[in-house]
UniProtKB/TrEMBL annotation:
GO terms for molecular function: methyltransferase activity. InterPro entries: Methyltransf_16, SAM-dependent_MTases_sf. Signal peptide: none annotated. The keyword Methyltransferase applies. This is Methyltransferase domain-containing protein. Gene3D superfamilies: Vaccinia Virus protein VP39. CDD domains: AdoMet_MTases (cd02440).
Length: 230
């Protein structure tokens, strides 16, 4: 017995269909050995990794258009892994990461559901130093600025693992911490293109969502074309 229930959903990205195993709802919980609790993941937070969130769809759509040529890419807080699956489908060199003890299991299952090779995965806590992870040409994430302190944590991860010429791409549903994060990355010589995006079909202009594309020392002149949810 899993101790929690799951379901399968379908999501098209760039007209390519993806099958995804997700938790049935946000009330699911299963931590019999206390691994999640030991990582500081509360029962209220436990199920969040196992959902497909609007910001995750937006990031997946961005990764369908993203220039992957010669880039080593890291996804932070991958959850069920749709953006990383899109990159894997395109043949990108991608490493997915998360702190949740079940993220690797769901990611592997979803790769198999879509007839993709297993993805490279690393369990990564944003407050832990992991030198063996190395540096990346692009770091991507969706909805990781949900608390004020997350901006500092993600900025520190960028400082540790971003190549000198790296790009950082985040999708944010308008939680209010993106400006703080942008200021922190400006201290690392990043500049940002900030594109307002609809988070769902009911998100009327001015859209609350943001697609944040950071480049070191220069403003990105060709940000991904306006992204629409499908």
């Amino acid at each position: 017995m899993l101790g929690y229930s799951v379901r399968e959903i379908n999501q098209a990205i760039g007209h390519h269909p993806y099958r995804l195993r997700v938790l049935s709802d946000r009330q699911q919980f299963g931590d019999p050995d206390g691994r999640a609790a030991a990582l500081g993941i509360s029962s209220a937070q436990w199920s969040l990794f196992g959902q497909l969130w609007p910001a995750g769809r937006l990031l997946a759509q961005a990764m369908y258009r993203f220039d992957i040529t010669g880039k080593r890419i890291l996804e932070l807080g991958c959850g069920i892994g749709l953006p990383s699956l899109v990159l894997q489908q395109r043949g990108a060199n991608v490493v997915a990461s998360d702190a949740h003890p079940l993220a690797e299991v769901f990611l592997a299952y979803n790769a198999a559901l879509n007839d993709l090779p297993a993805l490279h995965y690393r369990q990564l806590r944003w407050d832990s130093h992991l030198p063996a992870l190395g540096t990346f040409d692009a770091i991507i994430a969706s909805d990781v600025l949900y608390e004020r302190g997350q901006a500092e944590l993600i900025a520190t991860v960028v400082e540790r693992h971003a190549h000198p010429e790296a790009e950082i791409l985040l999708t944010d549903p308008g939680r209010g911490n993106s400006a703080r994060f942008s200021r922190m990355l400006s201290e690392q010589d990043f500049r940002v293109d900030d594109l307002r995006c609809p988070m769902d079909d009911n998100d009327a202009p001015p859209h609350r969502g943001r697609l944040l594309h950071f480049k070191r020392g220069t403003i990105a002149s060709a940000l991904i074309a306006r992204t629409h949810l499908t």
